[in-house]
Amino acid sequence: MICPTCMAVEALLRSQRIPAAIAEDAAYSNPIKVVDRIALGAVAKKAAPRVKRGSTAASKKLSRSLKQVNQRARLKSGKLRKGWTQSKIMKTAHKMARK
Fold first, then answer.
1. Which residues fall within 8 angstroms of residue 60, CB to CB, at 6 or more apart?
2. 34-65 pLDDT per residue, tens
3. What is the 3-state secondary structure (H, E, C) of the chain?
4. Half-sphere exposure in the Cβ direction for 52 (13 Å, CA)
5. Are 32 and 9 in contact (CB under 8 A)?
6. Domain boundaries in the chain?
7. What local confidence, expressed as pLDDT, does residue 44 receive?
């Protein structure tokens, strides 16, 4: 199979008065074929637009309950109140979201 890149390289080399045998060997060499495969692959494989998933009702509910629980569990400075851990915050938020 003759690739368009190889043909173009060969024509370019011959236009510079390089002997036909040398021009052909260089044009149809493996590195030129690799370049052609990469170029054709980039053109042929257009990336499909990625579909972004929207937030679900459950995740919105969890978000709201996390805000409420964080208000109860944190001090004005942002530190956790005594007896509260991040784990306890998440457990409480999940319980609230399920109700």
1. none
2. 877 777 766 556 678 888 889 899 999 999 99
3. CCCHHHHHHHHHHHHCCCCHHHHHHHHCCHHHHHHHHHHHHHHHCCCCCCCCCCCCHHHHHHHHHHHHHHHHHECCCCCECCCCCHHHHHHHHHHHHHC
4. 2
5. yes
6. 4-44, 57-98
7. 58
